[in-house]
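Same chain as my last thread, 320 residues:
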Amino acid sequence: MEKRLKIFRIFFGAFLVLCVNFAFAVNPSVPQEKGKQYAEVIEGNNALFEKGDFANPHLYGGPEVGAVKTWGVGSPNAQGLGDIFTLLQGHYFATIFAVLILVVILAFLGHFMVIGQRKFNHDKKIRVFSKYNIVVHWCAAIPFVLLCLTGLGMVFGDKLGGGVLVRFMRDVHGIATIVFIVFGVLMFLMWVKNALPKVYDIQWFMMMGGYLSKENRPIPAGKFNAGQKMWFWVCTIGGFVMAFSGAFMFFQFTDIDTLRLMALVHNVLGFLIIALLITHIYMAVFAIEGALHSILDGCMGEEEIAILHSYYYKELNATQ
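reply #2:
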């Protein structure tokens, strides 16, 4: 425990340093020193433009991109990822997010109506998570959910009227990213061993964790089942990639085609993360009675462990 507290203090110190740096970083929402614009104070910003694109360097104190010629994927004037990025960003990404959210919610609504909530006897409880586990989980989960909500807010920014609200969401998105990175790393180190794949995880996927049946029979799973393991890897590694690509887009310290690539990666990963986040919330709050309490007080009912985490239950009995 003392070692964990030491690690926590180190990461918390690093978090404070990052917050200070972030607070004094360039903010695109406000004019910079001596009235300069955001584009003028970002090192390497001119690398985003070809020399032929400088139409009027005096307008707004920075370069102006000339009128785009022939648009269209595969057109003679297509350069890099420009056309495919414009097509997806302008016409498809927001629609895909909307359809994805609707389909996943409707699928789980159908599951709840047809299969219903799994119920177990919670009279006898077993401690599964420590206080440290609980604190780190929620300190990573809360900014992660904020990232998803503010990210969607920016995706549908035009439907929300744009302006101050969307800029506020962008700023919250940036701050939440820093908090998530700190506690996301702690969470990764805390649970990576439990999240390593096992042979019996294949069987879990083949029977969909038993969630398509009303029968309570032992399910092949360790402390985390295969679905939770998948969510762990997507949430941590996928979240870190999202933070990396988001930093490139926010600070714009690379060439324009790399920025387009980062935006494409950011959105595609976003599809997966949003779908699995809704799944995670449904499983924790609705699919299993009392499941949410395990990460609030650290305890799970013995029957629930014996059925849904049968291999972990055997490990617990073997150590007693």
